[in-house]
Each structure stands twice: as structure tokens, then as C-alpha cells.
Amino acid sequence: xxxxxVYCQRLSSLLEIKSMELSDRILVRKIGAILRxxxxxxxxxxSCTGGLLGMLLTSEPGSSxxxxxxxxxxxxxxxxxxxxxxxxxxxEFGAVSNEVVTVMAGGIRSLTGTDYSISISGIAGPxxxxxxxxxxxxxxxxxxxxxxxxxxxxxxxxxxxxxxxVRKASASYLLSMLYSRLREDGK
Length: 187
What we know:
Blueprint (H helix, E strand, L loop, with lengths): L2 H35 L4 E5 L5 H7 L8 E6 L3 H6 L5 H7 L4 H15 L3 E7 L14 E8 L2 E8 L8 H23 L2
Parallel strand pairs: 1-2, 1-3
Antiparallel strand pairs: 3-4, 4-5
């Protein structure tokens, strides 16, 4: 008898994820259309999403015209060695901070020579959260030629939901940030 609420909650989470996947595909199509029309390129530096953003971006046919690639910077060493994030910055602000994702975005844009870059670092759980930065805290950035916008968001996370919910919700949010930036820049 008690299984029904758990089943309904899991079904609701599954439907939410499927809905996000559909809206992500539409969003990636729109992002690609803008970048292709303007002959611009994009790269990504991702941590907590572990390649999800790259997968979403490359799921669009023809994305090789505007998406050059990225780095999965899961460890602090990769953030430092490949993307140029100072160790002192990670120690002072934490790997999940607007300061770090701003440098990550600039680092991957410089590394790949793209017009735009996006970056993400967060705590997807189930462990790793703190009082100041609980599970579900994610920082994201969009960079164009050194003009960077960064945001810290908290994506609600319950014990019954998997870390996939945080990863997918944050990836969707970052794609929305990028789309908004592309539209603003197009004005």
C-alpha cells in the first residue's frame, strides 16, 4: 500500500526528465540555428554534468558546424591544468563558485578558439553538500570574448530523486542561459 506514493513520485520524476529532454532538444536546435546563421562557434567545460552538455549539443544533426568540443573537468587538477583556474581561487571560493566557472568558461574558450563558451560546476549528490552549498547547488557561466555571465542556482533534490535530476535540470538551465545570451547579442 505504501508503494503507490513512491511509484507515483518516481513516475513523476521520469516524466519530468522526459519533458526536459524534449525541451532541451528544441533549445539546442534554436541555439544551433543562431550560431550557424552568425557563423559562430561554441565550446563547453563541464564538471558535475560529466559530458551531458556535450552529448546534448552533439545530438543535433550538423552541430559539428558550430560546436567544436569541450573538456570534462571533473577534478580540480583538470580545472587548474587545462582550464587555467588558479588553485588559490578554488581554495578560496570552492570549485562550485561563480569565480571558478567564470575562469573555466574563459579557459575553454581560449583553448578551443570559439566565439562562445559555457561552463558548469556543481554538487549533484548524494554526498558532497555543505551547509553553505547543499546538494543541488550549481554554478554556470556563459562567456563571449571575455564578457562572462555567471549564476549560482540551487536545484531542489530529494532523497527519492537521483543525481540525474540535478544534472539534467542544471544542464537545461545553462542551455537556457546560453540561448538568452545569444538572443541578447543578436539585438
